[in-house]
Amino acid sequence: MELLVQNLLNGLTIGAFYALVALGYTMVYGVLKLINFAHGDIFMWGAYLGWTAVTFFAFLGLRLSPWAMVPTIILVMVTAALLGVLIERIAYRPLRGTGRLPPIISALGIAFILESGARNLYGASYQIFPKAVAIAGRFNLTGSVTVSVTQIVALVAALILMAALYLFVNYTRVGTAMRAVSLDHDTSRLMGIDVNRIIAIVFLIGPALGGAAGSLVALHYGSFDFTLGWTFGLKAFIAAILGGIGNLPGAMLGGIILGIVESLSAVYLGSQWKDVVAYMLLALILIVRPTGLLGERVAEKL
Predict the structure, then answer these.
(1) How far apart are CA 146 and CA 183, in angstroms?
(2) What pLDDT digit, counting tens, does each position of 98-146 carry?
(3) Beta-strand (E) ranges in the chain?
């Protein structure tokens, strides 16, 4: 029983990360019906930018502490947001109205550019976060069930960001405009909504969340390389489909479920079966319920 509880906690943490990245996929799909394959690599750049920031702080002789991650994550979110807007303006906006295939090909091209750029700039070896930034300590919940301080901080930060996005989309004027654009671009324009501005805001928010997730994941694991965006981003995409692509609560739910399923399968079936179970879950949900778990329950999708 204690082993089950321990792995549920571990799965919840990883699932929160999946959900945070999945929100970027689902937001873009909601307003453009586009799968932004470059989103996973923006997430990967978030990890590199976070590592670069704390390494630069150390180079300047600043005293590093776990609190150094607060300005680091803010800086990463701003940089990733600007990168997302730039990608939308250069790679996606000129291709609107050309059909579904050209934007997807463009997204794949941007993904390869971002991945290759990271490999060329930072090298193919793993980067390790400075130990001074790691948050030491573990809490013993019951028996052998423990949770690390780093795990708590990362989980709480991810949940706060997801809650903030949900409130923003559902209870602000801009959020209302996003939901309107996700339903119909032309009608939204007739209602006085600047569709290009709303899409730019979506590409501002999604990559910002992805960048924050990248820094949190790098902090949680302690090391990473340039393939992080492909491996983790693909799992987040599965989470978005599982919950219902284009649906914010669905992305959150899908991420949590996928994280828990992976954690349990790694323990009871073996770590080599973890990815197999994830892809089998994707195939199963596409066969049984193609719209996802919450795809039909929410009328207004974003």
Answers:
(1) 45
(2) 888 888 899 999 999 999 999 999 998 999 877 666 665 566 767 677 7
(3) 127-128, 138-142, 145-148, 223-224
